[in-house]
Amino acid sequence: MSTSHCYYPEDEEKSVSRLEDAQNVCATKAAPDCVIARRFGKLGLLPRLFASGIETRGVERIPENQRESKNAWNKSVNTVFDIIPVGVLAQSTFTLSFANAVAAILCFGALGAVATAFVATLGPITGLRTIMITRFSSGYLGCTIYSVLNILTQLGFATTTVILGGQTLSNINPGTIPSIVGIIIIGVCSLIPCIIGYNMVHVYERYAWIIILTSMLFLWGLGGKAGYDINAQKPLENTGHALSADILSFGGIVFGLVTGWAPVAADFNCRLPADTPPMRVFLLTFFGLFIPICFVGILGAALTTITDPAYVAAFRGGSTGGLVAQVLSPWGHFGQFILVLLALSVIANNIPNTYSAGLSMQALGRPFGIIPRTFWVLLAFVAYTVAGVAGHEHFFTILSNFLRILSDWTAFFIVIIAEEHFIFRRKNGPLGGYNLDDYDTPSKLPVGVAGILAGCFGVAGAVIGMSQAGPLGGMLAAAFSAVTYLPLRAFEIRLIGR
Known about the structure:
Elements: H1 9-30, H2 32-38, H3 45-51, H4 84-92, H5 98-120, H6 122-126, H7 130-133, H8 135-172, H9 179-196, H10 198-226, H11 240-259, H12 278-303, H13 309-328, H14 332-362, H15 366-369, H16 373-391, H17 395-424, H18 449-465, H19 472-496
């Protein structure tokens, strides 16, 4: 017996409509980059740019079935010229001997690298950018606050970077390229990979360090030929409590330099497969930070031990760029070529700053998140380039003050994330893990009172330690937040349940 089916045109239309809806849902799950790109379909040029390969995804979570990247943290971000001035600060600002400068770089660099490497492990676990992870400890509002802090941090890093690169370019052939023009050149070169996106950032960082490392080795060798005198600063060094204060102060700057990467560490690991061993990510990040920072920072400290009057005069007249130009001067035009490579090496450091600043601007809230990532990257470029032009004559003052402040807020930022992860989100803990689908649903996220209050206590600790020596501000900030977050978060979970 056959069964007849009634046919109506409107039924076909409904069926097609339902099919299209189902296809859209499947498309969202299978290829969300395409769905994200459709948001900007009426914006003319943008869809074409996205179709050409420019990254469409911003702060949206990357599902486990879309993790194809094998890229991890790369050593290029710190095998760069702008780490040299940090080593120079040891003698020029804190009058430390070479031995004490090396000890501070090694010890405080290791501490900072451990903290930052831990944050990096959360990228593959969550598939989220670093700032978005804070929503699971400090709530939606807390994430907005951290976004503001991180925007200022990345723009601060970027400002010091373009200033140094611009000054160095101007020292290649004095009078040819003004510092301001050099700053703009560095900024534009940093912008291009960030516009293209995640994969281009990793491609650049994967290979840039090879050329930069070779240039650094040349610099080490020519500095040795000029004559390192590792005892040159000993008569100028303070003693007793003053020496301890200088070591702690310089160590705090080194710690702040390394932990400055913590608020962006997961940004460049979030596309790794979810089953990537956390220890692998930790070790790659730790050594990718620690080795280059020590190698280049100690080089900066060593260059200040050269006592030849011509080198001393070069440093006083042209800051770090002038000193390095003098070191390379025996090689003539080839030395100038090496100086160009060193000046351009700062791009590798500035690319992550620019890229992550744009992401943090998106993380300020939904109205910001719906605006394309490329717009925020452009805005970040304009902001730090203008700041670099305005402040290029005060590089060392900006650098030392900025890094001191930086170490304070990143200290309590890391502590709060760590306590949330290891205590409240552990497998058998009060929350039993992360419900990652809730990352953009405020009603399912923590209220954030505990995280925000703990951060406020951290600020109070930093203020108390501000008048003290060294990294005491950062240490007190971390301690105050650690002590207060634990009971406050436990009470918040008991009261609200999330």
